Amino acid sequence: MIRSATVNDVPEIRAMIRELAEYERAAEQARATEEQLREALFGEHPAACALIAEDDGTGEAVGYALWFPRFSTWTGTRGMHLEDLYVRPRARGAGHGKALLASLAATCRRNGYDRFEWWVLAWNTPTIDFYKSLGVELLEEWKVCRLSGEPLRELAAQAPDVVNPASGA
Predict the structure, then answer these.
(1) How many domains is the chain built from?
(2) Using H for helix, E for strand and C for coil, what is the string for 75-139?
(3) What CATH number is associated with residue 142?
(4) Which domain holds residue 77?
(5) Does residue 167 belong to any structural domain of this protein?
(6) Using an 8 Å Cβ cutoff, are 169 and 163 in contact?
């Protein structure tokens, strides 16, 4: 079963984020707290949405998908960015990942989103093969850019004042 996450799922979502980070060999980078996730998913201004995959027999959470809307200046339409898709190893091969992706694709169609995009690590061959089996197009010509830490602080320190015409400031 696929269902929308609830605030009660936050501890389990955080646990699966940690499991995903360990699988992706980056456990030290998964620092989000339950409080941060609660605010991001269920706060006054949610930043993201999540789905939970449950085992039909036990009702146990066996996977999740976390996504947020995006916008394309080229198409002039909204789209979806999938931040995380994770199915616990013991539940893989039972269709949970495909069901999560199909549910997200249906959300895209329902909301009129033109694009559904995400990233995958280049070394993650089993996942890449799974995505290819669904007809996913891998955009080899694009590179992900990230600015964080000290370089982010240094560039921000160089920012000119931004005028906001709406506030007169």
Answers:
(1) 1
(2) CCEEEEEEEEEEECHHHCCCCHHHHHHHHHHHHHHHHCCCEEEECCCCCCHHHHHHHHHCCCCCC
(3) 3.40.630.30
(4) 2-156
(5) no
(6) yes
Indicate if 131 belongs to the active site: yes
Phi and psi dihedrals of 47, rounded to 5?
Answer: -95, -20
5, 64 contact by CB (below 8 A): yes
Residue 135 lies in a domain: yes
Output the pLDDT for position 148.
85
In a domain, 139, yes or no: yes
> Which residues are CB-neighbours of 29 under 8 A, at least 6 positions away?
21
Query: Is the confidence at residue 167, as pLDDT, over 70?
Result: no
pLDDT tens-digit map of 48-86? 999 999 999 999 999 999 999 999 999 999 999 999 999
Say how far apart CA 116 and CA 100 lie, in whole Å.
13
Strands of 61-72's sheet in order across? 2-4, 49-54, 61-72, 77-87, 115-118
Largest CA distance in the chain: 59
Asked if the model's pLDDT at residue 33 lies above 60, the reply is: yes
Question: In angstroms, rounded to a whole number, what is the distance separating the alpha carbons of residues 48 and 10?
Answer: 13
Asked, for residue 168, whether it belongs to a domain, the answer is no
Confidence band (pLDDT; 50, 70, 90) for 36? very high
pLDDT reported for residue 169: 53
Q: 73 or 166: whose pLDDT is higher?
A: 73
